[in-house]
Amino acid sequence: MRLWSIHPQYLDTKGLVAVWREGLLAKAVLEGKTKGYTNHPQLIRFQQNDSPLLAINQYLHAIVDEADARGYNFDRTKLRNTVDVNELTVTVGQLNYELEHLRKKLTLRAPHELERIVKVETITPHPLFRIIEGDVEEWEKLK
């Protein structure tokens, strides 16, 4: 499961579809509708929020907004309407790690998409996140 902290604009089609699917799985976990993935490290930051379900729904709304902008048809009815929740934080180190991780994936999966992000220097986070100083997040499984 990868719930990207970087803005979904950086993701290729496969990445956007994957984060949608994995985000819906995360939502099911937070709703108690599945027994798997309950201790997955990617969920920690949502579980630590005052309103985990509102946070994951807000996260997914930004994913479906990006899909809409690209002309894709993700099923928005799977999401609850949300009110703004407290922003989650993400470290500069985490954003850098994720962008490099995506670049490696695109090198193999979609080199033509890599050209779009190869020169990105200032990373825009997913709209739910506010950037803070720091290294890669403790919950990240480094490869």
TrEMBL record:
Top-level taxon: Bacteria
Keyword terms of this UniProt record: Lyase
Any one GO molecular function term: lyase activity
InterPro entries per UniProt: Pyr-dimer_DNA_glycosylase (IPR004260)
Pfam families: Pyr_excise
This protein's name: DNA lyase
Species of origin: candidate division WWE3 bacterium
Upper classification of the organism: Bacteria, Katanobacteria
